[in-house]
Design brief:
Distance between the termini: 82 Å
Strand content: 15-25%
Largest sheet: 5 strands, mixed
Helix content: 25-40%
Protein name: Molybdopterin-dependent oxidoreductase
Pfam family, one: Oxidored_molyb
CATH superfamily of the largest domain: Oxidoreductase, molybdopterin-binding domain
Radius of gyration: 27 Å
CATH class of the largest domain: Alpha Beta
Shape: elongated
InterPro entries: OxRdtase_Mopterin-bd_dom, OxRdtase_Mopterin-bd_sf
Number of domains: 2
CATH architecture of the largest domain: Alpha-Beta Complex
Number of strands: 10
Keywords: Membrane, Transmembrane, Transmembrane helix
Structural class: alpha+beta
Bound molecules: the ligand Nc1nc2c(c(=O)[nH]1)N[C@H]1C(S)=C(S)[C@@H](COP(=O)(O)O)O[C@H]1N2, molybdenum atom
Number of helices: 7
């Protein structure tokens, strides 16, 4: 008679060994895949330094897609940033870097230069800006370096300035570029953020004309963005359908820098 092999139920030890084998197999494979992916990204070419810099090209492609996704999902012109009663505004306003806005400036000689779509330019004096409708804003200013402060700014809403000077064709473009008079500091903004109702060209801080270190005579205040985009001492404004140069994006910071 042939001996029949009876299938025995697995012992506890066998079960454990089998499960260990399976888990190590699965985690090992996932780990190897993750390592392979990381190595691929690590060795992938860096993006060509231009408007943005410092990231590996595939990562930048992913970042750009993520930016568009969140812009479409979360940005809404009618959504306002939280504002505060004026008494809550800091009396001693924090100060950060002064690239392109060091020292003083002569207000009588200063002009805001706006380059229209057709390349013709507008040269606007300080007094012409003061004559436009005034908007006040008390909000929590946030710097990427990790500080924030409730501050009080006033000036002309950027959108009001655009309508006053009939820059309708320009608002149909995708981006706005701002530069200091010496072109040492420059930022690029997407049009929806630029024409947001709380984006202002400020000439006052705590009800007084801007001191030189806070952007005399005119600075950008854009609460939907981090501090880096709030350019001090505006010299020139341009419009384009391609992203304008941006000082910090060239150093590897996020181009959009939205909140
Ligand atoms: N011209 C110019 N504007 C600038 C900067 C700069 O270095 N130069 N720094 C930016 C940064 S990083 C921040 S946080 C704010 C700080 O503004 P404040 O100095 O008025 O606090 O200005 C922004 N605008
Ligand atoms: Mo900043």
């Amino acid at each position: 008679m042939k001996k029949q092999k009876i299938k025995q139920p697995l012992t506890v030890d066998q079960k454990i060994r089998r499960r260990n084998f399976l888990s190590f197999g699965i985690f090992g494979t996932l780990g190897a895949a993750a390592y392979g992916g990381w190595k691929w990204l690590y060795h992938s070419p860096k993006e060509t330094a231009g408007v943005t810099a410092g990231a590996h090209a595939p990562l930048r492609r992913a970042l750009n897609k993520t930016e568009l996704f969140f812009r479409r999902l979360t940005f809404n012109e009618s959504h306002l940033v939280k504002t505060y009663p004026v008494e809550m505004a800091a009396k001693t306003v924090r100060h950060n870097s002064d690239i392109g806005s060091e020292g003083d400036v002569n207000i009588d000689e200063w002009r805001l230069k706006i380059i229209r779509r057709d390349k013709s330019t507008l040269n606007i004096s300080y007094n012409e800006i003061l004559a436009l409708p005034k908007t006040e804003l008390v909000f929590d200013f946030k710097c990427v370096e990790g500080w924030d402060q409730i501050q009080h700014w006033s000036g002309v809403r950027f959108n009001d300035l655009l309508s006053h000077f009939e820059l309708h064709e320009e608002t149909k473009m995708s981006y706005v570029g701002l530069m200091t008079p010496d072109e040492q500091y420059y930022v690029g903004l997407d049009m929806p953020s630029a024409i947001h109702p709380q984006t202002i060209l400020a000439y006052e801080m705590n009800g007084k004309p801007l001191p030189p270190k806070h952007g005399k005579p005119l600075r950008l205040i854009i609460p939907v963005k981090y501090g880096i985009k709030n350019l001090k001492r505006i010299g020139t404004i341009t419009f384009s359908n391609r992203r304008p140069p941006d000082y910090w994006a060239e150093q590897g910071y996020d181009y959009y820098s939205g909140l």
